Amino acid sequence: MAKNTIFLWYDKDAEAAARFYTQTFPDSAMGRIVRAPGDYPSGKKGDVLVVEFTVAGVHCAGLNGGPEFKHNEAFSFQVTTDDQEETDRYWNAIVGNGGQESACGWCKDKWGVSWQITPRVLTEALAAGGEEARRAFEAMMPMKKIDVATIEAARRG
Question: Which ranges of the chain would DSSP assign to H, the alpha helix?
C-alpha cells in the first residue's frame, strides 16, 4: 500500500466507482478488495468493505461506509488534458455515466465525487498572468466544459 492514499467514503458502490475510474483514466488500476470480517452498521460479513485502486497515478481507497457522509466540492480530482478530444472524452465519460455538469471545468460523477477536467492551455494562460490570464479567466467563467479553442483565442486577445 502507498504511504499516502486518498481515502474516499461511498455509500455502497466503492467497487463500481473504482472500476469506472480505472476504465476511464490512463495510469489506473484496480487493487486489493477487502471484505468485511463481520457485520457492520451498513453491511454484513463478506460484503465489500474497502477497495484499493489507482486513478491517474494517484493511490486511492474507497470505503463502503453507508449513507452518513456525502462527497462535496471541497475535494476534487483535477485531471489535466492536452486537447479538446481528451477533455471531451473524460468529461463525457463522467457526465454520461450519470454524472452532472458544473461550472468552469468541474463536474461530478454519479457517486458525487467532483472532477476538474482542465485543459493545459487554461492553466498555462492563468499562470502567464497579466492581460492574457484575465482574458482566459473571463472566457472560462461562463463555461461548463472548457472549450480549448475559446481559451486559445482569449490568450491571443
Answer: 14-24, 84-96, 120-128, 130-140, 148-156
Same domain, 75 and 137: yes
Q: Which residue in 13, 91, 82, 26 sits closest to 54, CA to CA?
A: 26
Give the torsion sign (CA, 54, 55, 58, 63): negative
- pTM listed for this prediction: 0.94
Same domain, 33 and 96: no
| 60 plus 76 within the same structural domain | no
Q: Tell me the residue length of the chain.
A: 157
User: Cβ contacts of residue 76 below 8 Å, gap of 6+?
Assistant: 106, 113, 114, 115, 116
C-alpha cell at 153: 483565442
What number of helices (H) and strands (E) belong to the chain? 5, 8
Q: How far apart are CA 42 and CA 12, in angstroms?
A: 8
Mean pLDDT (the chain, rounded): 97
**Phi, psi angle pair for 29, to nearest 5°:** -160, 150
Q: 76-81 and 114-119 as β-strands: parallel, antiparallel, unpaired? A: parallel
Give the residue, 13 or 2, on which the prediction is more confident.
13
Show Cβ contacts of residue 12 under 8 Å, excluding neighbours closer than 6 positions. 42, 43, 64, 66
